[in-house]
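Archive entry. Fields below.
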Amino acid sequence: MTAGERPRSAADVRKEVRNGARDTQATVEQALQRAFDVKAGMDGLNIFVSLDDALLREHARGAATQLADTEPGSLLGVPVAIKDNIASLHHPTTCGSRMLKGYISPYEATVVARLRAAGAVPFGKTNMDEFAMGSSTENSAYGPTLNPHQTDRTPGGSSGGSAAAVAAGIVPIALGSETGGSVRQPAAFCGVVGVKPTYGRVSRFGLVAFASSLDQVGVFGATVDDAARGLRVIAGHDPLDSTSADIPVPDYTLAGTHSVKGMVIGRPKEYFPESLDPRVRARCDAALAHLAALGAIVKDVSLPHTDLAVPVYYIVAPAEASSNLARFDGVRYGRRLPGDGLRGMYEATRTGGFGPEVTRRILLGTYVLSAGYYDAYYRKAQRVRTLIADDFGSVFGSGVDLLFTPTTPTPAFRLGAISDPYEMYMSDIFTVTANLAGVPAMSQPIGRVDGLPVGGQLIAPHFEEDRMFAAAYALERALGDEAHR
Amino acid sequence: MAVTIQDVQHIAALARLALPPERAEATVRELNTILGHMDVLARVDTEGVQEAIGIGARGLPVRSDSDGPVPLARALDAFAPSLRDGLLLVPRLSTHESTEEA
Amino acid sequence: MTAPTMDALLANWEMVVGLEVHCQLKTNSKAFCGCSAAYGGQPNTNVCPVCLALPGALPVLNGRAVELATTAALALNCTVHPVSVFARKNYFYPDLPKGYQISQFDQPLATGGHVDIGRRADSSPIRIGVTRVHMEEDAGKSVHDRYPGVTAIDLNRSGVPLIEIVSEPDMRSAEEAGAYLRVLKQILEYMDVSDDSMEEGSLRVDANVSARRRGETALGTKTEVKNMNSFSGVERALEVEWIRQVGVLEAGGTVQQQTMLWDGAAQQVRPSRTKEGSHDYRYFPEPDLPPLVLAIDWIAKMRHDLPELPADRRARFAKDYGLGEYDVDLITANPRLADYYESVARAHGDPKAAANWVMGDVLAQLKTTGQDITTFRVRPQDLAGLLNLMRDGVVTHTAARQVFARMVATGDAPAQIAEREGLVKVNDDGQLAGWLDEVIAEHPAEVERFRAGEKKLQGVLIGAMMKKSRGRADAKQIGAMIAKRLTSNE
Ligand SMILES: [Mg+2]
Ligand SMILES: [Zn+2]
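PREDICTED_STRUCTURE:
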């Protein structure tokens, strides 16, 4: 198997395990072998920050071997890679940071518990931008992850390791997290499917917080079906997360049988600016043409506050982050560096533990919340955020079922190509809106440019992931191999 | 509204981050560049617009007083940097700010 | 330099005081996690991912804490808001695990209340405004003196639910501040929102105090005084700090807005060494907790179901039981004592007799042993039983006190004790006459003098009779018997 080749799907793995053709140990063994081959053969890629073979073999032996037949969506025997900011009991949870080097969580995230309950094997921890702050996985204390399609390119970020793990064919499903596009953007760059659910759809309990009002665990899949299966297992109400919604979860895999005929798909003009790479535009138009051919009605729409999203995002997210990351103080866990007195210990620990981008955002967030600036920045941003959310409300309220946009303005950029922080922030321009509005969105491959994948984004109203999956399944079928050409 | 070196020193102190003078100056420039892009927000009319607090939430769920805690699979000594007799140790405070902040 | 007297200063200057009171709510578990909220325990054993602020842990609000906070707010005549918002108060301190305290800021649970703390000379109430009541969590405990060179942290208290009650700057003296605190404590006890045996220390009090010249209406610059651990400490600290401020002002200086720490041992205030200006709590709405929404109907029901307030109970006791103001105040000082009294009065039927016993023997006993009424051995129905025995002439008053002493010691029923200890009143005339014969024989001189007209000697003879009967004779009955026997001609 070469880079970018599609791995066996989660559905196939599960079928084989269920009918006895293979067992969980064999599926884990195969994933370990593939991870080893990738490491040896593809410049390493630097996908996993921790992957303990012995531990995984032990877990594979202990994993569920049988689940009731009433569990059609189970992930029996499926290895699932986990982003390094999601608490798991055995591998360390370090958020790609020196701050948490060696820290093994004494409790487990709800999403990981649900994966295990569904028969999946949590498969190592994947590389990421430190504390999920970044769009290229270059801000990791472990060094950057490389894009499996072209190793001089970034896989995107912050969930670059998880996207690459799926793209490299190691696992069919991986968990990532989103605060401003950190699943969809790397999914687009790596040519896999990435889903950001509705805010509140998936429990955040055990997801190390970056910006609480924006964070959401997301799923990567080699195919739409893999992503649908993964989301189905982790979604649903969790009493341990006060922002978790108590709303029933449909079987997203059934969306594959739904038709898009008559569905109104909005094409927001703000996401197709003059400056958009024409090759990306062409791929999007081709995808829309496929949907139209299937009977969907494509309609031009407008989300007028879109250009304010990045400024709003880079006030709200750092503000919350500055508070969320205050707990990393060297008192209870993680690394402690000695300093002069208590204050010296705090400063040494935090200054030594956080990398430059995290430090920058903590300072930015502290500033926008500080006395005298709160109203001008934080309060103002939270008001404009309402306008952005209202844009989606208006367009979905006007008979539009879904939106279709490019996931990113360009395909994967070169490692090290972007050094200006704000220019990097602008690469999230098409993705941060969904986080600000809390709506679900996903990216799927819609073709390539110069051998690099291009992602198309579907955005749905709150808790209408089902509708989004229906269009994604249909588009994936219609595109066929074109999605990866 | 430009960020000054004093602002940066103040927020670094609030955030318990050490900033050597050359980093402080670079940070002033970086923050001013970033915040320059935020100026666009000042021009948006948000008169009467609600702040996005608890977007989409349907009130705050509460739990029962008899619910137990999420258990710890490993005790504090498995991860605490400095522990003695079950107490977490930190360098002694030069001032007892505790009464200040309680 | 000799310190000027309070009276001299008060002639020209006025004290202005507002108080912030923190009170722990009576819940089983903490505010935002399921850990036990109980005091004590081995260090760092009542902890979990949430109250240790482990990466990824999230708060979930304790519904009971909301009920108790609402009850307290309503009892303080506040408006409870249908929507309130939790906020983060950000600051670093090693016993504050998250680096922020979850509190309420610009949209608190309740605002606009008041309590009356007494009456002025013109009988108008002295009313203290309650600015707000909000919910928040406690921090852990820092131990500075246990090990050399280090501070030790115990997070068992981290996340325990509190309410903060903020008053208007309506108090004009240390005495008023003390009165406010005592009234507040009594109301909270009556609402049963805090710990059963609420010590003064369980209400943590911070005071804002300023001085202004009499006649002025603008507020002077205030200081915040902290670190008092009793109500009398608050009163003393306010006086000391206010005298200091007046001294500064009279010398033509200005009062610095700062935090002062009360040193109870030295009876002094000293400025906290924390730099001012470093306080910038960067409050913002807690994104992990959506706004708290309380149904109007629920708030109305909570108001309707409010336990009886101290003032209402005082009025009712005065009216229903015919007790005087002093008795009412004493009996209703504490709701559990009032409950105790009421049970005795109802079971026995004579509220005055019940009051006399509760205020007399019961309180004396509690005071001697330092016991709490809730754990007092003599239960109300047994005390009522004893009062019934007296009323029915089964035991004499003197014997009743002996029975009571045995009840305190054993917890046994009064009738059983009276029977067992032979304290049942002797009504047998033959028995009494026999004892009288013995007394007359043993006290010939007194008998002689009594017969000669020294009537006060009857008391000595009665005493001798009581001694002989071990209190089982009725003093009145014996008195009549003595009079009859010694004045009749033999
Ligand atoms: Mg407080
Ligand atoms: Zn806890």
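CURATOR_NOTE: Chain C has a mean pLDDT of 92.
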